[in-house]
Design goal:
The protein is built from 11 helices and 12 strands. By secondary structure, the protein is of the alpha/beta class. It folds into 2 domains: about 120 residues, Rossmann fold, CATH 3.40.50; about 130 residues, 3-Layer(aba) Sandwich (Rossmann fold). The strands form 3 sheets. The chain has a 5-stranded parallel beta sheet with strand order 2-1-10-11-12, with helices on both faces. Strand 7, helix 6 and strand 8 form a beta-alpha-beta unit. Helix 8 packs parallel to helix 10. It is elongated, with a radius of gyration of 19 Å.
């Protein structure tokens, strides 16, 4: 029996990659780190979105955030520039709102993306007057703080809620059966997702050790560092396109 592949990327991208791997006859476990839902309280969000034209820059952090933001925003004012941290989210933004929307993002593979890479672009462009972050109920504070230090008026609003993975009874049973076989290959794309995985495994005796003795594929050095902290030793870096991810996963399976 081949080692299972645990896919943890949120959103439809996870299902697309899973379907591709399943067509190739591989054993795929779909464990998206987060499920995206709309928030229960929306008064503040609606108030801010009614005044979108007052913002120079709107930051959308991830591909899975785009459908939630698109629920609230159908068209962007011409004065607004969108910003994101990598090409994957940029593609999702173009798909949602078209090629005419103004958009800045760091080009290149995931290793050269992220908040720091976006910030370098912002510094070259100069300080925006007002910046809106449309994100989940929590998020990394590094980038909003950089804008504040630059003198921008920064508004952070919850546009969606991230619900972390909780293994179902069926997934737990599958995990316990799998622990008698080869160690898995895990594809994970954020530091938060690594923490979610470790938390989800905690109730099952031996599960964390079994998983971390396997291999991990990820997209950014910061995530790789968190994986090492969690106990993984075999870690490979990839870009986000499905063909490249598949090649890295297969390399571990065939090693």
């Amino acid at each position: 029996m081949t080692a299972p592949i645990i896919l943890m990327r949120p959103g439809e991208a996870n299902n697309r990659l899973a379907a591709k791997l399943e067509r190739e006859g591989l054993d795929v476990w779909r464990w998206p780190a987060f499920t995206i839902e709309l928030p229960a309280e929306t008064d503040r969000l609606r108030e801010v979105l009614e005044d979108l034209a007052s913002f120079d820059l709107v930051v959308i952090p991830s591909p899975s955030a785009v459908p939630a933001v698109a629920h609230w925003v159908h068209d962007w004012p011409e004065t607004v520039t969108l910003a994101t941290v990598g090409e994957g989210t940029a593609k999702a933004i173009r798909a949602a709102w078209g090629d005419e929307v103004k958009l800045i993002y760091p080009a290149g593979d995931a290793e050269h993306s992220g908040s720091e890479a976006l910030w370098a672009m912002v510094e070259e462009r100069g300080a925006p007057r007002r910046v809106l972050f449309l994100r989940g109920q929590t998020g990394r504070e590094w980038l909003p703080q950089r804008f504040r230090e630059m003198g921008a008026d920064v508004v952070v609003v919850c546009a969606y809620v991230r619900l972390p993975l909780e293994l179902s009874n069926g997934q737990i049973a599958e995990l316990i059966r799998g622990m008698t076989n080869e160690h898995p290959v895990v594809y994970v794309t954020s530091t938060d997702a690594v923490d979610v995985l470790m938390h989800a495994l905690r109730p099952i005796p031996g599960a964390r050790d079994w998983v971390t003795r396997g291999a991990a594929v990820t997209i950014h050095p910061r995530v790789a560092a968190r994986l090492r902290e969690a106990g993984f030793e075999r870690i490979d870096m990839t870009s986000v396109d499905d063909e490249t991810v598949t090649a890295h996963i297969r390399a571990f399976l065939e090693a």
